UniProtKB/TrEMBL annotation, chain A:
<dbReference type="InterPro" id="IPR012748">
    <property type="entry name" value="Rieske-like_NirD"/>
</dbReference>
<keyword id="KW-0411">Iron-sulfur</keyword>
<keyword id="KW-0408">Iron</keyword>
<dbReference type="InterPro" id="IPR017941">
    <property type="entry name" value="Rieske_2Fe-2S"/>
</dbReference>
<dbReference type="InterPro" id="IPR036922">
    <property type="entry name" value="Rieske_2Fe-2S_sf"/>
</dbReference>
<keyword id="KW-0001">2Fe-2S</keyword>
<feature type="domain" description="Rieske">
    <location>
        <begin position="7"/>
        <end position="103"/>
    </location>
</feature>
<keyword id="KW-0534">Nitrate assimilation</keyword>
<keyword id="KW-0560">Oxidoreductase</keyword>
Automatic annotation (TrEMBL), chain B:
<keyword id="KW-0408">Iron</keyword>
<dbReference type="InterPro" id="IPR052034">
    <property type="entry name" value="NasD-like"/>
</dbReference>
<keyword id="KW-0285">Flavoprotein</keyword>
<feature type="domain" description="NADH-rubredoxin oxidoreductase C-terminal">
    <location>
        <begin position="332"/>
        <end position="399"/>
    </location>
</feature>
<dbReference type="InterPro" id="IPR016156">
    <property type="entry name" value="FAD/NAD-linked_Rdtase_dimer_sf"/>
</dbReference>
<keyword id="KW-0274">FAD</keyword>
<dbReference type="InterPro" id="IPR036136">
    <property type="entry name" value="Nit/Sulf_reduc_fer-like_dom_sf"/>
</dbReference>
<dbReference type="InterPro" id="IPR006067">
    <property type="entry name" value="NO2/SO3_Rdtase_4Fe4S_dom"/>
</dbReference>
<dbReference type="Pfam" id="PF07992">
    <property type="entry name" value="Pyr_redox_2"/>
</dbReference>
Length: 108, 832
């Protein structure tokens, strides 16, 4: 089956606090859109691979976020938990166009 | 090894049969020689020390951090009065020797003391050079050599204004940095085209100048001073090119000259310094000299490393031992300006027979230059990244053939070892591969062998113990990491880094205590400022250090520092407790455990309106609403606020609850109004941020129904007053309180509580509850600060109340109706 990707605008970069995150509600669950100290934007499913903690509520440092529930550290670029922990939070492609954050949605 | 023998002069013993040793100079070289001597021949000498300065021996190189406000005098003392007492040393401090009668073997002091000697140790250090321009004797012109100079500079800095430092060498730049830290506008005048030209090549000199200017220093190179201006005191400096710089303080830091006057007057052979042979003997065999005052093989030194070596030889000689003699030293320099990494060693003047390896990384501000001659390293200049300094220095001193390492030499030791066959990527192996003579601590001249031996022989297991026993890393602390690696390498898995000395996290080598001290001393007022000035290894810290820094800044600058919500754990940012399913719980404050029909009704209404699934009475005498959706939080709070309720801070590293019992109001055993007192305590302390959570309790009689003796502070009411108990908690490790004091009035309870809270806020490490804090610092310390020192207690309480004046705003109201952090509660978008 073919997949189609639509870039969907979700807001402006400055709507997301530096070293912070905002939630995007979708039919398939919440996404977390992060902004790092160097103004890079990343998006992950808002579910920690450990026990589902909301990553959008964690402390953002460098290119990582620390889950608020039990302190797993997740790499924003890949969604992978940083060793010694294992697991992956679904990683969502994201891009910025003229200050607008766009997220890639897959459709069947 | 060749050994030298000692032409021993005849000795006339003292009354108790011991040799009389008189020491002129109470400084670093003299005292190190005595320490070495006592280790070799304890009790052999009756020792008298004369010091021109009115104080014990301290670490002169730490005058720079003293001036910058990073250390206090007590921190830099090397030998306290107890040391002199323990070794039976008579100290005449503040009484310089004015003459040596060599024929009679007697020294004469300014106060008129005449003390006979069998052996004399001369260690008079050096004197700062004062350039003889007009005005150089005006009040307001100072040098930088001893504690009195620092006091003079601090006094000048206290009235603000501008300072001019003449001399852009090590001393001048450290003085300039210190004065700038003390709030002065500082201009450095330097005669040469680049700074520190004796230690740095041009490139590094320029990098340094740019960095200092970025920090606010004005640097004028090629500046030749013509005159110091002013009639009664300093008003400015005029350069030969006519420029005038107004200022109220001039620091002369243009160089030093060996202190030889006494020796010269006594007829000893003196050239630039007091001439000594390889056994540190002067032209009079009864007189030994060490330190900056000497000239050995035509060289005079101005750094401490050589004097550690001289001290050993002099001690051998005084103890009558054979030794190999002193053959001279190679020296390395490190600039002690916090946040600037600079290291230089050896010789780097350009010449035909030399080759340079230069490494630059402009983005990281790193510059390295290594100078080779005949495949040997003869000079090194490192800027921006100096961790490999000791390794290069060792290669240089050993004259190691580096032809095999050449390609990767600039990348440092870890890389070289890796290239050699694997071992080296691990820094433990790097330190393991250093030779026993490798110097670990430059400030105190401690080499690897000494540390390893002390660890083994004395059974040392922590950094603190190594500091106490060997002085390694006890001064500027830049070698802390190396010492820790040595502990690890020596003890293997037996070594657990002590919490005291452990860095906050992997982002830094600084400990909690250092960071807190430096925040205050360096006037750092934001997290980026701390990360920059204290050289964090990561761009913006991590979830461990950022909340700690946020807390330290908050306590250091009440009313000034703006809380950084991005550095707070989710609960403290949301002002609610996150639950395992991502919903939140809401706990309104119930002052002292009291509630009312109105409050209960409002709670019931909120539960219905927002369909809150669980309502529970907590272990802290209040009500918890569990399972509130994030988006509903502001509305829930608005309704609770409307009924007069505020946040209970059930989520905060701050005051949680004040648990009370009914007390005299109803209870047949009650001795005081425990409920009323609990309410007063909660009204005074709510909203405060503390290192960890704080819980208080007040029981109306010793039956103790409020469990006050397992609280961070608990009050037990008795007929005659109030017992204050401190340092307890339930929790993971139960600890019952210790009795602090008994007081008579509620007013005293409040004052003690405020003072205790503040002491805890100022001294405990982030995430350290009162119980472990108390066990670490000791109950006696807390008593000394709160009970024995009423003035200090009042001051602590006043600081607590001052900071409370900024923190008693209800965070719920700010968010429910004040619009604070609105973005936290609403999604960015809803799509799909
Ligand atoms: C709600 C409550 C349980 C209850 O239903 O009674 C509770 C709930 C939690 N406690 Fe507690 N503790 C509660 C009273 C206590 C008590 C009893 C007391 O205060 O008298 C203790 C032991 C007394 C003490 O602290 O000395 C207690 C010792 C702890 C500890 C262990 C602290 C320690 O020093 O070892 C933790 C863990 C921590 O703080 O790191 C903790 C942590 C927690 C956390 C915050 C766990 C967390 O990080 O999410 C729980 C939050 C639940 C929530 O969302 O509300 N809770 N907790 C109580 C709230 C009191 C209040 O009104 O604010
Ligand atoms: C601000 C500053 C920073 C420094 N930083 C560094 C550094 O980072 N690294 C480094 O290696 N070195 C540094 N040094 C140099 C280092 O401090 C000296 O090399 C060292 O102190 C020399 O030791 P000394 O015992 O020879 O002289 P001193 O420590 O000066 O001791 C001599 C003592 O003798 C006293 N005295 C003189 N004449 C008489 C007399 N007639 N009777 C009685 N007492 C007398 C003096 O008052 C003085 O107290 C620094 C020096 C200063 C001032
Ligand atoms: S005792 Fe454990 S499970 Fe119960 S509230 Fe406290 S932290 Fe949660
Ligand atoms: S759910 Fe994220 S660390 Fe446990």
């Amino acid at each position: 089956m073919d997949q189609m990707i639509t870039w969907t605008p979700v807001g402006r970069v400055e709507d997301i606090p530096v070293q912070g995150a905002r939630v995007v509600r979708t039919a398939l669950g919440d996404l977390a859109v992060f902004r790092t100290v160097t103004d890079e934007i990343f998006a992950l499913e808002d579910r920690c691979p450990h026990k589902g903690g909301p990553l959008s509520q964690g402390i953002v440092h460098g290119g990582r976020v620390t889950c608020p529930l039990h302190n797993w550290v997740i790499d924003l670029a890949t969604g992978e938990a940083v060793a010694p922990d294992h697991g992956c939070a679904g990683h969502i492609p994201v891009r910025v166009r003229d200050g607008v954050v766009e997220i890639a949605f897959r459709h069947a | 090894m060749d050994t030298l023998t000692h032409p021993s002069p005849p000795v006339a013993l003292s009354a108790d049969g011991r040799e009389r040793l008189v020491v002129v100079g109470n400084g670093m070289a003299a005292l190190r020689t005595l320490e070495e001597l006592f280790a070799r021949a304890p009790g052999r000498h009756a020792v008298t020390v004369f010091g021109a300065e009115p104080r014990v021996n301290y670490n002169r190189i730490m005058l720079s951090p003293l001036l910058a406000g990073e250390k206090r005098f007590d921190d830099i003392v090397l030998n306290g009065h107890d040391w002199y007492d323990a070794h039976g040393v008579t100290l005449h401090a503040g009484d310089p020797v004015v003459a040596i009668d060599r024929a009679a073997r007697v020294v004469v002091s300014r106060a008129g003391r005449r003390v006979p000697y069998d052996r004399l140790l001369l260690a008079t250090g050096s004197d700062p050079v004062i350039i003889p321009v007009p005005g150089s004797a005006l009040p307001g012109v100072v040098t930088f050599r001893d504690v009195d100079d620092v006091d003079r500079m601090l006094a000048a800095a206290a009235s603000g204004g501008s300072a001019v430092v003449i001399g852009g060498g090590l001393l001048g730049l450290e003085a300039a940095n210190g004065l700038m830290r003390q709030g002065m506008d500082v201009t450095v005048l330097h005669l040469m085209p680049t700074l520190m030209e004796r230690q740095l090549d041009e490139s590094a000199g320029h990098l340094l100048q740019a960095e200092l200017e970025r920090r606010g220093l004005t640097v004028i190179t090629r500046a030749d001073t013509a005159a110091i201006l002013g009639s009664d005191r300093v008003e400015g400096v005029r350069l030969k090119d006519g420029r005038e710089i107004p200022c109220s303080l001039v620091v002369m830091a243009v160089g030093i000259r060996p202190g030889t006057m006494l020796a010269r007057d006594a007829g000893l052979t003196v050239e630039r310094g007091v001439v000594v042979d390889d056994l540190m003997a002067t032209s009079d065999p009864a007189i030994v000299a060490v330190g900056e005052c000497v000239q050995h093989r035509n060289t005079c030194y101005g750094l401490v490393a050589p004097l550690w070596e001289m001290a050993k030889v002099a001690a051998d000689r005084l103890a009558g031992r054979e030794c190999a003699g002193y053959t001279g030293s190679v020296t390395a320099t490190k600039l002690k300006v916090t946040g600037i990494d600079l290291y230089s060693a050896g010789d780097f003047a350009p010449a035909k027979d030399r080759q340079d390896i230069v490494f630059r990384d402009a983005a990281r501000g790193v510059y390295k230059r290594l100078v080779l001659k005949d495949d040997r390293l003869i000079g090194a200049v490192l800027y921006g990244e100096t961790g490999d300094g000791p390794w290069y220095f060792q290669l240089l001193k050993d004259g190691t053939d580096v032809s095999g390492l050449r390609d990767t030499l600039a990348f440092g030791q870890a890389y070289a070892a890796m290239a050699e066959g694997g071992a080296g990527a691990n820094p433990r192996n790097a330190v393991a591969s250093l030779s026993d003579e490798a110097e670990i601590c430059g400030c105190n001249g401690v080499c690897k062998g000494t540390i390893v031996k002390a660890i083994g022989e004395k059974g040392l297991t922590s950094l603190e113990e190594v500091r106490t026993h060997t002085k390694a890393s006890a001064s500027c602390g830049s070698c802390t990491g190396l010492v820790e690696q040595l502990l690890k390498a020596t003890l293997g898995d037996g070594y657990e880094a002590a919490t005291a000395a452990k860095p906050i996290c992997g982002c830094t080598h600084h400990t909690h205590d250092d960071v807190r001290r430096l925040i205050a001393a360096m006037g750092l007022k934001s997290i980026p400022a701390v990360l920059q000035a204290l050289e964090w290894r990561t761009a913006d810290g991590c979830h461990v250090c950022r909340p700690a820094l946020n807390y330290y800044l908050l306590t250091a600058w009440p009313g000034e520092y703006v809380d950084d919500s991005r550095s707070r754990f989710v609960n403290e940012r949301m002002h609610a407790n996150i639950q395992k399913d991502g919903t939140y719980s809401v706990v309104p404050r119930m002052w002292g455990g009291l509630t009312s029909a109105k409050e209960l009704r409002a709670i019931a209404d909120v539960v219905d309106k927002f369909a809150i699934p669980t309502v529970k009475v907590t272990g802290g005498q209040r009500i918890d609403l569990l399972g509130v959706k994030k988006d509903d939080l502001p509305a829930v709070w608005a309704d609770l606020n409307a009924a007069g309720m505020v946040s209970g801070h059930a989520y905060a590293k701050g005051l949680r609850t004040v648990k009370t019992c009914v007390g005299t109001e109803w209870c047949r055993f009650g001795t005081q109004d425990s409920t009323g007192l609990g309410v007063k305590l909660e009204r005074m302390t709510w909203g405060s941020w503390t290192p960890h959570k704080v819980k208080l309790g007040v029981s109306g009689c010793p039956r103790n129904c409020a469990e006050a003796t397992i609280k961070d502070l608990g009050v037990i009411c008795v007929d005659s007053g109030y017992e204050l108990h401190v340092g307890g908690n339930g929790g993971i490790k139960v600890r019952a309180c210790d009795l602090l004091v008994k007081v008579a009035t509620e007013g005293e309870v409040l004052e003690y509580t405020g003072a205790y809270m503040q002491l805890y806020r100022e001294e405990a490490r982030y995430l350290e509850r009162t119980a472990p804090w108390l066990e670490r610092v000791g109950l006696d310390h807390i008593k000394a600060r709160l009970v024995d020192d009423p003035e200090g207690r009042k001051a602590l309480n006043a600081r607590f109340l001052f900071s409370q004046s900024f923190s008693q705003d209800d965070p719920w109201a700010a968010r429910a109706s004040g619009g604070v952090d609105r973005h936290e509660f609403a999604p960015l978008a809803e799509v799909g």
